[in-house]
TrEMBL record:
Entries under SUPFAM superfamilies matching the protein: DhaL-like
Protein known as: DAK2 domain-containing protein
Stretch list, region Disordered: 231-273
Highest taxon above the source species: Bacteria
PROSITE patterns: DHAL
Cited SMART domains: Dak1_2, Dak2
NCBIfam families: YloV
Taxonomic source organism: Streptomyces fimbriatus
Signal sequence, start to end: none
Domain called DhaL: residue spans: 12-224
Residue ranges, compositional bias (Low complexity): 231-244, 259-270
Length: 613
């Protein structure tokens, strides 16, 4: 992505920064994953940071797309000119919100709070079109302070330390945004190189902090946004005992040869290629280092050897007072507690032994949703490499995106690995890649089940192929097409034959849905008003009505006019049961030899999904 140098921060610069940061994390993801030794050595910090920034970037792109849809092109490619394009406040708020709802893991959650802290300063003046170097200095300072406050038990030698160093270095820089960004980057880079001397577990593993490494990549992208050039790798600053750090890109290399204060025998040659597991270091002699069993290399307290059994993450709608009580409750249940957000929406991350209690605490505080619980079970991240026995790969698996919990259960029962897509929150490509890895198979059939996800799914498939996984992408445009494909899936036959059969079944299934219009709009069937019931067939509005049952009946009749053997109905949350009953009766009485099956999809967005095979 070629960048034109500029001296100020505006909406376009925020957009460019997000894109560059995503590219940088994409390049360094595997390296960062490999050095992830705490809170648990689950090798996902780089992936979590990538997914967090991907969500932020998507939110910013959505803001620009919204403005582009509303006006003609103006100066610098902004729709409608400066007045018609998004403001700086629009862009940074979207970036912060996207990061908040898409944050993954400890480091991703902290990064989301860093971006939110910056947004709170940069969006302070609603009408401001741009921020100068002084504004960027203040934003970086507030970001570091707010991130530290979000962590229950901050520990030095982590991403918090790197963020603090970046803010301090920026605070001493005079000049435009490019000068301030470069100072922040250099300060962060030097602090990252020093992290092994602050945490004994990093020193013994011979790595720098993974979360801090990711932040350095994000700050390098900020420098490139303003200067047009990525920072050149330079030797890390340090005295004669600081050892050497190999730089390969926008920051210190993940593995260090020797760090300040480490005995020569503890040095790790960067060329050895050996990866010591975090728990080896945690169970070793702690007498020499600053790290105790409760320290966390991603910014907060973590378990000692063994650690809690679960990671629990969820979004929470709650007021400030309820969240304050929740912090106290969760702090008593586990560790690695990070709570970020504000203005009624929060992202909660904690490691606990009782996952149910952590979720119940969220229910007491407000409305938790997008709940993710990861079990650190036997043979997992708490087990040394020597103790783990690798799980045998399956020959073939199906990975599917599904729009509701009910359908997720249906797909899972059929043997598929699922990715839940909530209304307005489509999964990112990184999430699909993670699901493909989780399927742990040599061959994977990927079902996006949404026309808008075709590019996202294609990117995920390409990434998985580079990892040696054979992936076939079937361009299913609806969950009912995915059901049809899954019904003919036979893992025992040859991969190509299976893919052809599943593709044929999906292609032979017409899909429709019934939903409610959110605002006035032009459609293929005419003008609809907010609150109208819309019937869509193959993605286009075909019926505009006032009654749910009548509209669904009209859609079904049109779909069956070309014939069919099987009707699939998927009821959304809150859709009356008698709608399905009425449609079943109509099919039975009006169409010979056509069967009907009904499923409950949960919160799938649409009131009703219809498939006709």
């Amino acid at each position: 992505m070629a960048q034109v140098p500029q001296t100020f921060l505006d909406a376009l610069a925020v957009r460019a920064w997000c894109g560059l940061a995503l590219e940088a994390l994409g390049r360094s993801r595997e390296e960062i994953d490999a050095i992830n030794v705490y809170p648990v050595a689950d090798g996902d910090t780089g992936t979590n940071l990538y997914l967090t920034v991907e969500s932020a970037a998507a939110a910013v792109e959505a803001v620009f797309a919204g403005h582009e849809a509303g006006g003609a092109a103006g100066p610098r490619g902004i729709p409608g000119g400066a007045a018609g394009g998004p403001t700086l406040a629009d862009a940074v708020r979207a970036m912060a919100h996207g990061a908040l709802i898409g944050a993954r893991g400890n480091s991703g959650t902290i990064l989301a709070q860093l971006l939110r802290g910056m947004a709170q300063v940069l969006a302070g003046e609603e009408t401001a079109a741009r921020a100068d170097g002084q504004g960027l200095r203040l934003a970086l300072r507030h970001a570091a302070d707010s991130a530290r406050q979000a962590v229950a038990h901050p520990v030095e030698g982590t991403v918090l330390t790197v963020a603090e160093a970046a803010a301090s270095a920026a605070g001493g820089a005079e000049g435009d945004c490019g000068t301030v960004a470069r100072a922040a980057y250099e300060g962060a880079r030097a602090a990252l190189a020093a992290t092994p001397g602050q945490l004994a577990v990093l020193r013994r593993a011979g790595v720098v902090d993974a979360g801090g490494r990711g932040l350095v990549a994000v700050l390098a992208a900020l420098v490139e946004t303003f200067t047009g050039e990525a920072p050149r790798a330079m030797p890390a600053a340090g005295g004669p005992r600081s050892g050497s750090v190999r730089a390969t890109g926008p920051g210190p290399h993940a593995r260090v040869r020797q760090v300040d204060g480490a005995p020569a025998g503890d040095a790790v040659d960067a060329g050895e290629g050996e990866e010591r597991h975090a728990c080896v270091a945690a169970r070793g002699d702690l007498a020499q280092g600053a790290a105790e069993p409760g320290e966390c290399a991603d910014g907060g307290a973590v378990p000692g050897p063994g650690g809690p059994a679960f990671e629990v993450i969820y979004l929470l709608e709650a007021d400030d007072a309820a969240v304050a009580r929740l912090r106290e409750r969760l702090d008593g249940l586990g560790d690695s507690l990070v709570v970020v957000g504000g203005d009624g929406l929060w992202n909660v991350h904690v490691h606990v032994d009782d996952a149910g209690a952590a979720v119940e605490a969220g229910v007491e505080a407000g409305r938790p949703y997008r709940i993710r619980i990861t079990h650190f079970g036997a043979g997992d991240v708490h087990t040394t490499g020597a103790e783990r026995s690798p799980r045998e790969r399956a020959q073939r698996a199906v990975v599917a995106v599904v729009p509701g919990e009910g359908l997720a259960g249906l797909y899972t029962e059929a043997g598929a690995t699922t990715v839940l897509a909530r209304p307005g929150e489509p999964p990112a490509s990184g999430e699909l890649v993670q699901a493909v890895r989780r399927a742990h198979a040599r061959e994977v059939v990927l079902l996006p089940n949404d026309a808008d996800l075709r590019h996202t799914a294609a990117a995920a498939a390409e990434q998985a192929r580079t990892e040696g996984i054979r992936v076939a992408l079937i361009p299913t445009r609806s969950a009912v097409q995915g059901i049809a494909a899954l019904a003919v899936h036979e893992p025992e036959r040859r991969f190509d034959e299976d893919v052809v059969a599943m593709t044929s079944a999906a292609g032979a299934t017409r899909y429709g849905e019934v939903t409610v219009a959110e605002h006035q709009s032009w459609t293929m069937a005419g003008i609809c008003q907010a609150g109208d019931v819309l019937g869509l067939i193959d993605g286009d509005v075909a019926v505009i009505g006032q009654d749910l049952t009548a509209t669904a009946e009209a859609v079904l009749d049109r779909m069956l006019a070309a014939g069919g053997e099987m009707v699939t109905l998927v009821l959304g949350e809150g859709t009356p049961e008698d709608v399905a009953g009425h449609l079943e009766t109509r099919v039975r009485e009006g169409y010979l030899a056509v069967d009907t099956v009904v499923y409950h999809g949960g919160r799938q967005g649409a009131l009703l999904l219809i498939g006709v095979e």
